Each structure stands twice: as C-alpha cells, then as structure tokens.
Amino acid sequence: KAFELFNSGNYEGALKAFEKALETNPKENWSAIHSNVGAVLMEMGELDSAVTAFDEALSLEPDNLDSSLNKGIALSTLERFSEALSCFEIVCAKQESFQGQCGRSEALANLARYEEAVEAAEVACQLDPAHPLGFQDKAFALLKNRQFHEANQVYETALKLSNDDNETKRLFAISLVQEALDLEEEGDRMGALSLFHRANELN
What we know:
By secondary structure, the chain is mainly α. Helix content is 80%, strand content 0%. It has helices spanning 2-7, 11-24, 30-43, 47-60, 65-77, 81-94, 98-110, 114-127, 132-144, 148-161, 166-185, 189-202. Helix 3 (30-43) runs parallel beside helix 5, helix 5 (65-77) packs antiparallel against helix 6 and helix 7 packs parallel to helix 9.
C-alpha cells in the first residue's frame, strides 16, 4: 500500500505507511524501509530528514548502494557537495552507475575540480549516450572552467537530446555569449556576431 500511495503522489500517506511498516516488519527489512522513507522525504522536499533516513538505512546495511546514491543526491541538492561526492564515490567504486557518475560530475564542478568533473561526465556519457544529463554535466563543467568553445560543442548535443530543455538553453546561451566576448577581444567581430545571434535564438 505504501508504494501505491507513493506512486499516486500521496507522499504524506506513503510516509505514514512506511513508518508503520517499521513497527510491523522484522529488523532485516528495516534498511529498505528507511531507504523508502528517505525517498518519500526527498519528494516532499524534506532533504535534511531524508539524509537522516538514508543514514539509518546505511547504518543497518552499509552496502546499500541505492541509499548511498539517494543520500548523495539529497546532499547535492542541499549544496553539501563534499559530503555528496563521498556518497557518489562509494557508489561508483562498486558498480558502473550513470547516476553516480553524473552526481560525481556535478559535485566536482561545484567544488571547482573541473577536469575531474569533465572526466566523470564523459564516463556517464559512455554509460548512456542517449541520455542528455551526462552531456549537460560535461558542458556545465567546461563552462565553469571557462572553456566556452568546448562547452558550446557539448551543449549542442545536450540540447538535441533534451528536446530543447529550458535550463540547457539558458546555460548554452550564457556560454555562447562568453565565447563571443572572447572573440571580440581577439578582434573576430564576425565570429562574435554569429555567436551572439545564436544566443539570441535560444532566449
């Protein structure tokens, strides 16, 4: 019933059902239940409480990679990037994980470890070349590292794969403008105008 409530979007009902399951299930099931509680709390935006729930799950089952991954996602959303990175590193050390590598890339980029962020995103792209997130993460790391030309090439791919996702378009436009400004400084006015025009098309 808890999963039915969760899948229907009734997160408060699902939370109560999972909490009740802790009272009625044997201890060997508690780790999975705490992990499910964490997932519900994430959907409710209760990220600090979600982290606590994942910690409960991991204290009972340290090798629960789903709990480590979701804890990392919650910590990253809270902008606790060093802690998030540790969670993603655990996941990626034990299995090939698209989400884990994307999480690593995002955390590393926000920690100004841009080259490592690009490398993690490239692994994600290899694991799922049809998914836009790996390309979005790679482009973001390149953008943060002021490699605007390289970022723009990757954003072209990310934009096609994401069906013109608005956030991708916004960041792509920023990167195009930055490259255009660099070209202006170098005296390439025509090249700069072309990039400004492309950025305007995205806005």
